[in-house]
Each structure stands twice: as C-alpha cells, then as structure tokens.
Design goal:
This is 4-hydroxybenzoyl-CoA reductase subunit beta. By secondary structure, this protein is of the alpha+beta class. It has a domain of about 100 residues: Enolase-like, domain 1 (2-Layer Sandwich). It is built from eleven helices and twelve strands. The strands form three sheets. The chain has a five-stranded antiparallel β-sheet with strand order 4-5-8-6-7. Strands 9-10-11-12 form a four-stranded antiparallel β-sheet, with helices on both faces. The chain binds flavin-adenine dinucleotide (FAD).
Amino acid sequence: MTTLMPPFRLHRPASLAEAVATLSATPGGRPLAGGTDLLVNLRRGMGAPPALVDLTSINGLDRIDVGADGLVLGATVDLARLGDDPRVRAGWPALAQAAAAVAGPTHREAATLGGNLCQDTRCVFVNQSEWWRAANSYCLKVRGDTCHVVKKSERCYAVYAGDVAPALLVLGATVETAGRDGTRHLPLADLFREEGRTHLALEPGEVVTAIRVPPPDGASTGYRKVRVRDSIDFPLAGIAMSLRRSGDGLAGLRVALTGIASAPVLVPDLDTMLGRPWAEIAGPLAEAVRKGCNAVKTTVATPKYRRRVSAAAAVALGAELWAGQEESAA
Ligand SMILES: Cc1cc2nc3c(=O)[nH]c(=O)nc-3n(C[C@H](O)[C@H](O)[C@H](O)COP(=O)(O)OP(=O)(O)OC[C@H]3O[C@@H](n4cnc5c(N)ncnc54)[C@H](O)[C@@H]3O)c2cc1C
C-alpha cells in the first residue's frame, strides 16, 4: 500500500526573521532543510504538519567561518561540504569524519548540519510503513499508547542516531538558536533530552541557526561508526573521542556515543584515568563506554552487541589517537 505525502504549505523565506515569524504563526509547522529525514518520515505517515518552512534560501545560514575563536557553522551547511572542508579536516577531524560518515554521498549533498542535529529519533517499531505500524497497533511514538520495546513504559525509547552530534559534543560545541523570544546560546548537550518523542529542547517555532566549536586544544579527535551497510546506513553505534596525552600519561579524554539512547551521550567520569599510560586506560575505557550505553531493543542489532561493539570501537579509536599524539609530538 502506498502512502501519499500529506498536504502542506511550503514557505521559502529569505530571512531568518521571516522564517521564525512564519513558524511561530503556524502551530505544528516544521522547519525543512535538506528534507532527507523529514520528507521520508512524512511519506511514511509520521506526522502531517500544516506547513514546512524551508531554511535553505536564507542568506548566510550556510557559512563555514574559521577564526581565532574557532569554527562557526551555519545550520544549513551541507554535510558533503563540511566533511570535505580542508580547514575542518585539519582542525576538527572528528567533525569532518562524522559528517562524511552520514548516509551516502547523494544524501550528504542535500543533508544539512542543523537537520542532522535535529533529526527524529528512530526505532524498529516506528520506522516502518503505515500499514506495518497499523497492523502492530502503532506505538507510543506515533499514534499508539504502548511502547513495544519496553512494555508498560510511559516514555518512548526511540534512539537518537545522528552521527555529527557526538563529534560536536567531544569538541565542546555550543548551539545558537532563534525563536520568537530572540536568540539563545546553549551547550550542545542541552539541545537534547532522553525521551524519544520529545528529544529536542527547542520551543515551538525555534530553529537552530549556528554551531560554534572552540579552537583545537592540542587533542587528537576522531569518529568511529558501526553500521549494517557501510555504504549508506544509520549508526548501530557511533563513538567520538577527543584524547590528549602528556608524555606517557593521559592529559585529557572526552568520549561521546550515538545510536544507543534517545539522546547522544557524553560518557561520564573519565577523569579518573588522567595521568595513566594507555595500557592502564584501555580496560577502564571499555568498561566506562559499556556502562554509558543505554541500548534497548530499538534496532536490528541486539543491545548486547551494541554495548560490546561500542566498547571495542572506543578502544580501537583510543589506541589510534594515542599513537597519533606520540607521532605529532615527535
Ligand atoms: C537511507 C537514509 C540513511 C541515513 N543515514 C544516516 C546516517 O548514517 N547518519 C545520520 O546522522 N543520518 C542519516 N540519515 C538521516 C538524514 O539523512 C540526516 O540526518 C540528515 O543530515 C538530515 O538533514 P536534513 O537537512 O536533510 O534534515 P531535514 O530532513 O530537512 O530535517 C530533519 C529534522 O530536523 C528539523 N530541522 C532541520 N533543520 C533545522 C534547524 N535548523 N533547526 C531546527 N530544526 C531543524 C526538521 O524539522 C526535521 O524534523 C539517513 C536518512 C536516510 C533516508
């Protein structure tokens, strides 16, 4: 059975003020960027907004500026450009690697940074056709009243599977938004909530306008992703890391995970490893990552696999960054 795209009015404002005003005046209206997440979901019957407000004609919203204060990225920068930019690749490799790991090449030409951060959460019980979901009594996330993953749960466990957010988390990025109450600046972690239906802390009509990333701090950074099809797929697990060493001891470590909870997760309590050599870090790092994974049965792979593969990928990435720091010091 084919589901048709629901009817909506498409606005293409030329200014941010007009976009915010249109969204604020249209309850239920949604921002549209590349459309690679939103349009697919609407086609599958996940929502019927009365209006879509296309942000891609807004002047200056696609900037990549590099300066003494670091990197400023407009929300409509496309991921192909972000992944290819030589300045981003040199200064913030985790970010370039994460952008280049999203979906496939044609997606990345259209997909934007803002859309990537704000993409919807996913679950094997919701990213299905309308007839499949109807036949399975729907679920908490769309039209139903039961979570099929965690029975009797009052919250939705759909998973956040954006690749770029964990990279930005380990890089200490902040988000700029615009809404009817003006401009806000918030740490990236505060954009997300651990609830599959309401995973973004944005007010109605509020849009992400820019991301600010501090200048490189001497750490090596990287992103590793595990997926079913390497050519085009969401992460079953994704790990971003920023690692700095001083001689033979660890001087700084930040690790963030995606694909394992309803929000990207910054792994806590890594400071206990500071000062230790790599041989004493790998085991505790794997344990910390395993503990940081709140995976439940939301994907085709089991939670156990996602926990184990996250830990293994973190250790492999850590070993690579550790060795790279030695080479760059030599
Ligand atoms: C086959 C397939 C594979 C995919 N694989 C991956 C993958 O590997 N990794 C991954 O991360 N994603 C993946 N995606 C999802 C999607 O393509 C990307 O996340 C993409 O970056 C979304 O960006 P977009 O500009 O197309 O967003 P859109 O689809 O335009 O928007 C996505 C959501 O964000 C909102 N939004 C957009 N811009 C803003 C803004 N500035 N402020 C506030 N809200 C905004 C929209 O209202 C919508 O809810 C895949 C999608 C498909 C169809």
